[in-house]
Specification:
- The structure holds 2 protein chains of 2 kinds.
- Chain A has helices at about 5-15, 15-40, 65-80, 95-110, 120-150, 155-165, 175-180, 185-210, 215-220, 225-255, 260, 270-280, 285-310; strands at about 45-50, 65, 85-90.
- Chain A is mainly α.
- Chain B has 2 domains: about 35-110 and about 215-330, D-Maltodextrin-Binding Protein, domain 2, CATH 3.40.190; about 115-210, Periplasmic binding protein-like II (D-Maltodextrin-Binding Protein, domain 2, 3-Layer(aba) Sandwich).
- Chain B has 17 helices and 11 strands.
- A 6-stranded mixed beta sheet of chain B has the order 2-1-3-10-4-11. In chain B, strands 7-6-8-5-9 form a 5-stranded mixed beta sheet, sandwiched between helices.
- Mean pLDDT of chain B is about 90; it is low at about 15-30.
- The chains are: A mainly alpha, B alpha/beta.
Chain lengths: ~325, ~325
């Protein structure tokens, strides 16, 4: 064994080290974010005006370019007028970690002012429901179709060319059609998630099914196993751990379609929250919402991974994330 | 999709498939459904929120369901026939209609009074200074129309400037890069553009040509005809909304409701409201008369129609009279 694999192997084995590295993988980006946000000389291309001084177009709380600010300071000094003061700042598009943390806290603690506006938890719950139904419907069709296509060559050859073609069609482009057929509420949104997930799902699962050892199927056939029995007793049990892992990855895939799906029809869910806040440049709220999606997605995946280890103790690949 | 939706879908399926014989029943059930109106984030339309929160529709004896949309999604939903009415500009009513989503503008909500603007970078003081320079607008949208109108007034032609097509949402960044000399955008985007490039200022706004862009409540023609009595009540409620917002005594409360709907503080919202001239029924009556020019909804729609055809938004001129029906606004 080479030194590299020994190294990787030893790290893999040590559970404590692994946890530490896992935490580290989150701390590093956070550290970079903190550096960029709190250490003035790292980036800070703007100046946050505290006192406009004699500059007629400056206002309190305005963000101006550093060079422009320096020019105006020089101008004011030359004209013997009050010199503007300010502190270095990042563009409005990059709020600091503490601002985002505060927005995060506010979103969950303070209900919105208007009763017609759903709170952040309610928006989130709505989004989770969309994902749940979208993924469920996609799986009801996609999993059996994928397994059949992978098991029977005829089935695969009949379905896969079209599916290969269709998966390149952009799901959001079907938005207006989905609204025309399914109405303005959750129907079209779920449809977009399904369109975005289903076609990949069939192909991925068909591929997984094909990876099942041919000898297993041949042996079963020799012994007289046919049709339903072949599927239920040999194919499905054989691919189940891999199928489970595919589904985990596909669930993540479904989440990436959420934002475009929720732009269709009535404004709802976490997308409503994000777009509305972005329109008024409340980027702290925007990032808080984006991160909530990350936390939920990542959290579900962790739970599913743990569950996978329980369900398939014989499958060692479930151990790896 | 929650349980309520599923059960209501099942219910409609049931009534449609199982008991089609009892046609009379299903018609009466249909009439009992609330009027479905799509609205979006523009001060003149967020104003409806005041009536919703205060329960004025109930008081007026009309059942309405206001659904919040992104602007373009609201027009899609209207075209698809999923909602009875939508709030949009008179020009967009023509665009939506040309694509098959015909409507009747039963009333005016407001006109843009400064909220739409051409913002130029520092050093440029008027439209004339833009000669030979690049201007970014989203082609075919209202800011494009605004720019052409301004150029014409300044004695210039469209070819005197170089148009750069860009998304309205991205205008603040476009202006900040310095690649263009001016941008066209509406509030709050225009305000952000000025904030991100200090010293930049509006050189032409919709306040310079009131009536260039009217905002209306556009109703599905079938619904407008069959349920006219109910729509008349909606129009009456609007009058109450305008008076509540314009009355200095009640304005703070109104602004609070509107700001809460879009998720900002009342202080941030007030300037946006100021750039919008809300039209009471009496104001609307003066504008809802036939005539040329921007003081008439007919004249303004004619300009929009010409602009849309000239820019290839749609091919054939629209029959403007078929979109307009002053009887709702003029009803006693």
């Amino acid at each position: 064994m080479s030194t590299t694999s020994k190294w990787l192997g030893s790290v893999d084995g040590d559970a404590r080290k692994r946890t530490l590295l896992g935490i580290g993988s989150f701390l590093l980006p956070l550290l970079v974010w903190c550096l960029v946000s709190y250490v003035p000389f790292v980036w800070h291309p703007k100046v946050h005006v505290i006192d406009p001084g004699g500059v007629d177009y400056f206002q309190v709380d305005m963000l101006v370019d550093k060079t422009m600010f320096a020019d105006e300071v020089a101008n004011m000094e030359r004209e013997h007028l009050a010199v503007p003061t300010g502190k270095s700042a990042n563009p409005i598009y990059l709020p600091a970690p503490d601002q985002v943390a505060r927005a995060f806290y506010n979103g969950f603690v303070n209900p919105p002012q208007s009763k017609d506006v759903p709170s952040m938890p309610a928006s989130l719950w709505h989004s989770i429901q969309i994902i749940f139904w979208g993924f469920l419907i996609s799986s009801i069709v996609g999993v059996p179709l994928g397994i059949l296509s992978g098991t029977y060559t005829l089935m695969g050859r009949l379905s896969e060319p079209f599916i290969e073609f269709f998966r390149y069609l952009p799901a959001p482009a079907f938005g207006a059609l989905a609204v025309a057929i399914l109405g303005i509420y959750d129907g079209p949104k779920i449809a977009i998630i399904v369109i975005g997930t289903l076609f990949q799902q069939v192909l991925i699962i068909a591929n997984t099914t094909r990876k099942l050892e041919v000898t297993l199927i041949e042996a079963a056939r020799t012994l007289g196993t046919r049709n339903i029995k072949l599927l239920s007793k040999v194919v499905v049990p054989g691919i189940l751990p891999d199928l489970y892992r595919d589904q985990r990855i596909l669930l993540g895939w479904a989440w990436t379609y959420l934002i475009v799906a929720e732009l269709i029809g009535t404004s709802s869910g976490i997308t409503w929250f994000i777009t509305q806040q972005a329109r008024y440049q409340h980027f702290d709220n925007v990032y808080a919402a984006i991160m909530t999606i990350g936390i939920i997605g990542f959290g579900t995946d962790l739970i599913l991974a743990r569950l996978g280890r329980r369900l398939f103790p014989w499958d060692r690949t479930q151990d790896r994330r | 999709m929650n349980v309520k939706h599923i059960s209501s879908t099942l219910k409609t399926l049931f009534t449609r498939l199982v008991i089609p014989a009892v046609a009379a029943m299903s018609i009466s059930a249909h009439a009992a459904q609330p009027l479905k109106i799509g609205y979006s984030d523009w001060p003149g339309w967020v104003a409806w929120q005041v009536a919703i929160d205060k329960g004025w529709f109930k008081e007026a004896g009309v059942a309405v369901d206001f659904e919040w949309f992104d602007y373009s999604a609201s027009m899609d939903a209207f075209s698809a026939g999923k909602i009875d009415a939508v709030t949009m500009t008179n020009g967009d009513a023509l665009v939506t209609g040309a694509a098959g989503g015909k409507s009747v503008m039963i009333m005016l909500t407001d006109y843009s009074n400064g909220n739409d603007m051409i913002v130029a970078k520092p050093g440029i003081k008027s439209l004339k200074d833009l000669k030979g320079k690049k201007v970014a607008v989203e082609e075919g949208l209202v800011e494009h129309l605004l720019l052409l109108n301004g150029l014409k007034k300044a004695g210039m032609k469209e070819s005197d400037v170089t148009l750069v097509n860009a998304k309205t949402n991205e205008m603040p960044q476009v202006l900040a890069t310095g690649d263009v000399s001016a941008i066209g955008a509406w509030q709050p985007i225009a305000g952000q553009a000025m904030k991100s490039l200090p010293g930049s200022r509006p050189v032409y706004t919709s306040a310079d040509e009131p009536g260039l862009i009217y905002d209306v409540l556009a109703v599905n023609p079938a619904s407008a005809k069959q349920r006219k009595a109910e729509w008349l009540k909606v129009v009456k409620v609007w009058d109450r909304v305008v008076h509540y917002i314009n009355d200095p005594k009640t304005q703070p409360d109104a602004v609070k409701i509107m700001a809460a709907r879009v998720g900002v503080t009342p202080q941030v919202y007030l300037p946006l409201l100021k750039g919008t001239k809300l039209l009471s029924l009496a104001d609307g009556k003066k504008i809802y008369v036939k005539g040329p020019g921007f003081t008439s909804l007919y004249g303004s729609s004619k300009v929009a129609d010409d602009f849309n055809v000239a820019n290839g938004v749609y091919k054939a001129h629209q029959d403007i009279d078929s979109y307009l029906d002053s009887s709702f606004t003029n009803a006693k």
